Amino acid sequence: MRVHVLGSAAGGGFPQWNCNCRNCDGVRRGTIKARARTQSSIAITGGDGQWLLCNASPDILAQLQHFAELQPARALRDTAIAAVLLMDAQIDHTTGLYMLREHRQRLKLWCTQPAYEDLTRGNPLLKLLEHYCGVDWNAIPLEGHAFAIAPLDTLRFTALPLLSNAPPYSPHRDRPVAGDNIGLLVEDAGSGRRLFYAPGLGSMEPQVWDAMNSADVVLVDGTCWTDTELVDLGASRKTARSMGHLPQQGEDGMLSWLAKLPARTRRILIHINNTNPILDEDGPQFAQLRAAGVEVAYDGMDITL
Ligand code: MLT
Ligand code: MN
Ligand code: ZN
C-alpha cells in the first residue's frame, strides 16, 4: 500500500490568506524555516495505479498538478482517481468536489449517512453536482465491519465513528452524531500492513486506541499544539477540543498517546493548523517531536507500508 499526502494543512492552509500570525507571516517572508502547505487530503493505492482520494480539498487542482501519478493520460479525458472518500463534511474536505465536476462518469463517492445529509441539505453540494457529473453515493458502514471500494480490490477498509464535531453549518454542530467524523483503518490484504488515518480526532475512545495500536502507520490529527492556541493568539474564541481536535500538549494530549504506541509504529501528524508552532522546523516544538519519533506530514510526503 502507498499513501501520498496531497495536502497536510488544516482548513485555511498555510499560510492562510488573511493571517499574519508568526508562522504565516514568517513563511511568506522567508524568516522562519517552514514549508507552505495546502489543505487536507491524501491519496491511497494498493499499487495497481488505481487511487482512492481521501477528502477533496479546496486546493485539489494544485495538488493534482504536483502529483503526476493521478493523471495517467490513457485517454483524452482521464484520471487515476477511482473513487473519493470523505472523512467528514467540512469545507476543507469537500469543496474540491466542485473541481471534479468535469468527470466523465458519475463520481464514486463514499461518505457516512450524516455527512451525506449535510452535503445535501446545509451545504447541498452533492445536489448541485447533479447538474455536472453527478455522484454515486455509497454509505460508509459504521458498524465496524470491513468493506471494499471497487476497483481497489487489494485494500480493506474499516470506518470508526469518532467523537469530534460536525461542520459549523450542520444542524448537529456541537451535538455530533455517530458518523459526523470517522477514522479509517486501511489494510493491505496481501501484506497485512495497516494504516490508521484520522485528520479530525477529538477524543481517544477505546476502539480508536485499539485501531491505532493495530496499525503500522498512524496519520493523525495534528491541528493544534495547545487547546487554547487560537484563543491565546486572539484569532478565535474556539478551543481545539471544541472544534473536535485533540491538541498535542497536555496530559491527555496526542503526544502522550503517541508515546504509548508500540515502538514499531510510525507516527505522523497531519491536518496541521497554520498557527501550530510545530510548523517552524527550527523551533523547540519541532525538536521535541523529533526526539519523540513523531513526524510532521508535508505536501508530497509519500509513505510505503
Ligand atoms: C476543521 O477540521 O475543524 C476544519 O478544518 C475547519 C474549517 O475547515 O474551517
Ligand atoms: Mn478540517
Ligand atoms: Zn496563521
Task: Please characterize this protein's 3D structure.
This protein has 305 residues and is α/β, with parallel strands linked by helices. It has a single domain, classed as Metallo-beta-lactamase, Chain A (4-Layer Sandwich). Helices cover 18% and strands 21% of the residues. It contains 9 helices and 13 strands. It has helices at 22-29, 60-65, 91-94, 113-118, 125-129, 206-213, 229-233, 254-258, 284-291, and strands at residues 2-7, 41-45, 51-54, 81-85, 107-111, 135-139, 155-161, 182-188, 194-198, 217-221, 266-270, 294-296, 302-304. The protein starts with a strand and ends with a strand. The protein binds D-malate (MLT), manganese (II) ion (MN) and zinc ion (ZN).
- Could you say which overall geometry the principal axes of the C-alpha atoms support? globular
Hetero compounds: D-malate, manganese (II) ion, zinc ion
Written as H for each helix and E for each strand, in order along the chain, the element string is: EHEEHEHEHHEEEEHEHHEHEE
CATH topology: Metallo-beta-lactamase, Chain A
Name the poorly predicted regions.
none
Q: Give Rg in angstroms.
A: 18 Å
What's the total number of strands? 13
Separation of the first and last Cα atoms = 6 Å
Average residue pLDDT: 97
Proportion of beta-strand residues = 15-25%
* Approximate helicity band: 10-25%
